[in-house]
Amino acid sequence: MHVSDLPPIAITRLDPGVPMPARAHHGDAGVDLTTTTDVVIAPGQRVVVGTGIAIALPIGTVGLVHPRSGLAAKTGLSVVNTPGTVDAGYRGEIKVCLINHDLETPVDLRRGDRIAQLLVQRVELVDFVEVEALDETTRGSGGYGSSGGHALLRTVGAGEKES
């Protein structure tokens, strides 16, 4: 069932042996991406793995690579730069930078394992204009726990040096 008014997205399998990205269930937002190689990810280690696919997203859309929740819960495997961004102009292989957050157990991936999910979303391509000052709001510049209930975080901002 086609539920989007976007045209179908062109996809190329760079590795014909990997499955086409697919939704696990009807209506799921993301399609599963698989790894093209066997890899063992040690505790705390990061690794970039190929998916064997390239896509041609239309201008005004973006591909977002998210972790698979089951893998994250069961093994500690996640995507380092969550979500990863696939820009509309990119035509190379989609690769995923994975990290094993488990402190003790390696994650053993095999070729064809589902490692992440890809969501395609519309994106606003806005212009930016530099101004002398921004308009005032009730919140102002308060962020990172400023609404209360959290321990203070050490932050470094523009013009500040880390101590």
UniProtKB/TrEMBL annotation:
The pathway entry for this protein reads as: Pyrimidine metabolism; dUMP biosynthesis; dUMP from dCTP (dUTP route): step 2/2
Keywords of this protein's UniProt record, alphabetized? Hydrolase, Magnesium, Metal-binding, Nucleotide metabolism
Record-given protein name: Deoxyuridine 5'-triphosphate nucleotidohydrolase
Q: From which source organism is this entry?
A: Rhodococcoides trifolii
Q: Which GO terms describe its biological process?
A: dUMP biosynthetic process; dUTP catabolic process
* Protein residues bound to substrate: R68, S69, G70, N81, T85, V86, D87
Q: Which Enzyme Commission numbers does its entry carry?
A: 3.6.1.23
dUTPase-like domain residues? 19-148
The family database entries (CDD domains) matched by this protein are listed as: trimeric_dUTPase
